[in-house]
Amino acid sequence: MEAQSAKRKFHPTFLLIILYLAAGLIVITYGLIQIEMIFDIIPPDIVYIGQGVIFFLVVLIFSCSPAGEAISRKRAKCTEISDQQLRAKVDALYNQAFAKAKELNPKLRDDIKIFINNEKSPNAVAVGNKSICITSGLLKRADNEIIAVLIHELAHISYKDTLIKAIIGGGDMGVRFFCFYSE
User: Could you identify which of 22, 97, 111, 116 might form a hypothetical disulfide with 150, taking C-beta atoms 3.0 to 4.6 angstroms apart as the criterion?
Assistant: First the structure.
């Protein structure tokens, strides 16, 4: 059974090649749109829609990449947990939450990492496809509450909510691009 599941995983290099090919396709499409615009073959509104779609795809690909996830963590002011005692507590609570979440969804990825934000309010957020950022205020709550919040965030990752958020955000930026540049 383990051998079959190992075959299904994508090698990181393969994913990187797919991303580069998608980026290359976007650049080629953008170049073709520019050529068409120069020769006035395509109406300007169609060109703007094409540029908006390209912009959307670029934002989507970038936001789903490890670099996009790192930027999202930085924007959320999430950092590594450096205090070893705190790290041990968080890891123990996370392992309990992960075990429960994995029972409910066996396909949940195993490489999710926990980060911390120094906000006082008790909260957590799923950032990207494999990061959860918890606040220092959450760590002052009871252990069962922390576990419940971690399971909730694992559900966001499990059900690809962060990917859906990236698609919606990229679509929004594409529409804004179209509206800003069209006349």
Answer: 97
Nearest-angstrom CA–CA distance, 51 and 29: 9
Enumerate residues 6+ apart whose C-beta is below 8 A from 91.
114
pLDDT digits (tens, 9 = 90+) for 112-136: 999 999 999 999 999 888 899 999 9
Question: CA–CA separation, 174 vs 30, rounded Å?
Answer: 14
Distance of alpha carbon 94 from alpha carbon 183, whole angstroms: 52
C-beta of residue 134 within 8 angstroms of C-beta of residue 124: yes
This prediction's pTM = 0.69
Rounded to an integer, what distance in angstroms lies between the CA atom of residue 29 and that of residue 58?
Answer: 12
Q: How far separated are the first and last CA of the chain, in Å rounded?
A: 58
pLDDT of residue 94: 96
SS3 115: strand
Strand, coil or helix: 125: strand
Q: Residue 119: which of 90, 139, 145 has the closest Cα?
A: 139
